[in-house]
Amino acid sequence: MATKIILVTGANTGLGLEIVKALCGSIAQYEILLGGRSLDKVKAAVSEIVTSFPSAEGRVTAIQVDVEDDDSIAAAFDTVKNKYTPIDSSRNDKPTVVEIILGSNIT
């Protein structure tokens, strides 16, 4: 079975980083793309992940993306599309997304 590719935005802190840690700690093997506004901060998060999860080395990659900037999203999309097609899952930890998901799934 092919390795699943997961994109997590906001991955250098908070919920995004915790999602990445959970994925790295799971039995399943994923290739994880960590996205964030600051490429330096995302690269630092990749280093932190590899220190905590040595088996993640080579399976976690930093990409620059600001989910509030259309040009940044388009550039990240092109990067991902050209190297990592298809994406199996995308996770965004922005609170508005969580609110929409909760609002549509909880009655």
UniProtKB/TrEMBL annotation:
PANTHER family: BENZIL REDUCTASE, BENZIL REDUCTASE ((S)-BENZOIN FORMING) IRC24. Pfam families: adh_short. InterPro entries: NAD(P)-bd_dom_sf (IPR036291), SDR_fam (IPR002347). The keyword Amino-acid biosynthesis does not apply. Keywords: Oxidoreductase. GO terms for molecular function: oxidoreductase activity, acting on NAD(P)H, oxygen as acceptor; oxidoreductase activity, acting on the CH-OH group of donors, NAD or NADP as acceptor. Belongs to the short-chain dehydrogenases/reductases (SDR) family. The keyword Oxidoreductase applies. This is NAD(P)-binding domain protein. The lineage of its organism: Eukaryota, Fungi, Dikarya, Ascomycota, Pezizomycotina.
